[in-house]
Amino acid sequence: MAENIVKSENNAIVEDNAFNIPQGYVCTLDMTTTEGKKQVAQALNGSTPLKDKMNEVINLIGVITTPGTRAVSGNDCTNNYLIADDGTVYFSQSDGVTRSVKVIVALWGAELANGNSVPVKCITQKLNNGNTLKTIVPA
Q: Which of 34, 42, 83, 103 could form an S-S bond across to 62 if both were Cys, CB 3.0 to 4.6 Å?
């Protein structure tokens, strides 16, 4: 945060309020509009666990990914925010969701950018080692 502090011409200390998604991460919402800024703020400040919406269709209207840290292990991960057309935001730090979100955005990013919804759902696949992998698939 210290790098965001700048000195203005009148020597007042102010914070540089520019908000940027780091390179390599995704934000399909239009942060140049008031509505887009509201959606980003709401997504990053309040979400529902994606695990509560397994196998149910989500009409996706936006995606945000940011750097994250797993609470239990302290390992780096990606925070995935999936914004539904009803305003609900679903959150996951799953590596499978991260990979799936990149595919969804690569294939349907133009639709999302134009305000269209993309029906998706989160499924769980059991792996040979007994673990499970969450993925986002078209619905």
A: 83
